Amino acid sequence: MAEHYVYVLRCADDSLYTGYTTDPERRVEEHDDGEGAKYTRSRTPVELVHVEEHSSRGDALSREHEIKSLTKREKEQLVAE
Length: 81
What we know:
By secondary structure, this protein is an alpha+beta fold. About 40% of the residues lie in helices and about 25% in strands.
């Protein structure tokens, strides 16, 4: 059972934010409530547009870093899949 997730949010300004969590629903709520990352606080509401499950925290964090390294165009392609 996967307990580690990498997620991508679309912010109100159409930017994309990538993060790691163990509970995607709770984390999206935190972002919307202004309790998430500093980046998203002024960019609410946010919409969950992509989630990946990973079996370990290390795998999830590696994938988060990989996604954060993508260009916006590449991230848009990822969320469109």
